[in-house]
Amino acid sequence: MKTPSSKNHTTSKIVAKSILRLFFVLFVMLLAFYVTQDASKLSRISLYFANKWFLLFPISLFILFVGLLIKVLKNKYVRTEYNWLMSLNGGFLIVYLLLLFARIYPLVFG
């Protein structure tokens, strides 16, 4: 197996750690928002998905993120390819969570 260059390895470690921290901060903020809201406001939320396959992407994205997270933390950020895969997957997951929150936020406070 080819050993990664030190600059690419350092960059992938920094990006992977920052994506991981950003994801957990965002996840905790969304969880805190859910816990602190009044139940009557949250019961008004009605999201309709025309196709049930629409839920396959976020569920598989989250499962892949957790799997890659386990691999990256098990190897302690040594494998550059796992770092980049987790960073890419985490970036997509963060964007998805932000878009979902942007859709739910007006329903709660609108």
Total helices: the number is 4
Count the beta strands.
0
Helix content: over 70%
Residue-averaged pLDDT, rounded? 87
End-to-end CA span: 55 Å
Gyration radius, to the nearest Å? Answer: 17 Å
Structural class: mainly alpha
Shape descriptor reads: elongated
List the helices and strands in order: HHHH
Strand content: under 5%
Major beta-sheet overview: none
The poorly predicted ranges are none
Quick recap of the structure?
With 110 residues, the chain is mainly alpha-helical.
Short descriptors:
110 residues; mainly alpha; 77% helix; 0% strand
Structure commentary:
Helices cover 77% and strands 0% of the residues. It is mostly helical and 110 residues long. It starts with 5 loop residues before the first helix and ends with a helix. The model has no long low-confidence stretch (mean pLDDT 87).
What topology emerges from the helices and strands here?
Layout: H1 6-36, H2 39-43, H3 56-74, H4 80-109
Helix pairs in contact: 1-4, 3-4
